[in-house]
Amino acid sequence: MPTALVTGASAGLGRALAAALVGRQWTVTGTGRDAAALESAAREIGFTAVPGDVTDPAHRAALARSELDLLVNNASSLGVSPLPPLARYPLADLEDVYRVNVFAPLALTQLLLPALTAARGAVIDVSSDAAVEAYEGWGGYGSAKAALDQVTAVLGVEHPDLSVYAVDPGDLRTAMHQRAFPGEDISDRPLPETAVPAFLRLLDERPPSGRYRAADLLVPA
Predict the structure, then answer these.
(1) 88 secondary structure, DSSP code
(2) Catalytic residue among 89, 98, 141, 165
(3) Does residue 209 sit in helix, strand or coil?
(4) Residue 135 falls in the annotated catalytic set
């Protein structure tokens, strides 16, 4: 039975991905900072909950696995809300965005590389269109995701035995996306579950390592 670790598994896309993998008979460990939400999701879906913050080295050590087929670095931080222009972005908050969105995924990948390499497994880093498009107010989050894209690309080159993907899931109806648009109605955005088949297609077909858009993967081959 294949094994997976999904960060940010208590809600949104992480929860939807964990549910889909469990539905495919994967053994899934999920982590997230909201212990109550994570444990509720774990009971409902059927994965193992390990609450904690992926920026904490001690928590990452608790996530170490000797066997692992898939790491999904989904946990992310939007940063300051409402989204400020870069000219006024508080640097301490920007450092936190990079700590969550860049350094923690890389640190967790470093820790789990031996197990993933032995399994010829996969790493999926959840990206954003803000990593490649210049949206006003999105300089903090977008630049962090751009850095994550480059980290993902280089890891793919350096570890040809692994499948290493950055995936832009598109705009989704999540709590984080709502924080980006406080007071606005985002009910027109699709639910996270709609992007899941794109991630599953990557796992099924294992195309070359690189950056992919869920919208493209959802189009039949």
Answers:
(1) G
(2) 141
(3) coil
(4) no
